[in-house]
């Protein structure tokens, strides 16, 4: 087992070239081009039916592409069967052998490669230690919790030092707290191993918290890709802004443009936006995405460049934060989030409050 000292150098690079998979008239994957750098943690993120699992299964060799190619370190492996790809795989349902102990489950991929249990003992022990399961080596899966079973599945997938580790929604069957704990552990494991991880999820928080790169898929195509922070702060389309987190959408007509900024009118309310002025035209339509946490809430009119008043129609308390729904006359309903401990307003339905934000707090998106 690697000790993590080799870092990303121990990983392998993967490329997809015009990959497609068609089922009848449905293009589940439609001409996807993708490069996964060696040693990176890449996440395929999207709603059900977006093509993320089909892409992962094609990489694993379980789905035969209708077109395009899959390259590992520039070597074409498109027609290789799964057992010739040396990829580790972790599933949502663990897929452990119930009649085998933890140690024997982990030994299994080495056994099919002709390694005796005696010769494999050091690797089994190392894999167990990596996932903090060394003390449970002789237990059976039925004697383990869901989180422990998933750790065993991870150990089994890494014990033979795979070229890639493919993970298909491995945490979705776990409760929220355990998912959060295992996210930390998975990220730490990736850093220690240096293996290239390709992860599939529909959970935005998982993708944001663990990934080096996120690929957002929609209808079998890549909608946008990039580092988590860049995607969250600069979504290119309305779909990305709405799927990766939450956004308010302000649709208006462009007015004056000056020095990289422009004014626009939304529901009779004049507003100011910084950025993307070159992609707008005077009297043309524009759609702006505004994250709820970038809105300041106050009882009195704020000094912010953009400010509207409205009435609280609903709110939720989450311990660390309040989430508000506010009905405004000009902009309709807006959602806003504020830390609970610094909340400047009385959270009461029917109260009139002010919402303020600066011109660079929002971003122009394509309306699709």
UniProtKB/TrEMBL annotation:
NCBIfam families: potA. InterPro entries: AAA+_ATPase (IPR003593), ABC_SmlMolc_Importer (IPR050093), ABC_transporter-like_ATP-bd (IPR003439), ABC_transporter-like_CS (IPR017871), Mo/tungstate-bd_C_term_dom (IPR008995), P-loop_NTPase (IPR027417), PotA-like (IPR005893), Transp-assoc_OB_typ2 (IPR013611). The keyword Lyase does not apply. Pfam families: ABC_tran (PF00005), TOBE_2 (PF08402). It comes from Thalassobaculum litoreum DSM 18839. PROSITE patterns: ABC_TRANSPORTER_1, ABC_TRANSPORTER_2. One of its GO terms (biological process) is quaternary ammonium group transport. This is Spermidine/putrescine import ATP-binding protein PotA. The gene is potA. Part of the ABC transporter complex PotABCD involved in spermidine/putrescine import. Responsible for energy coupling to the transport system. Its EC number is 7.6.2.11.
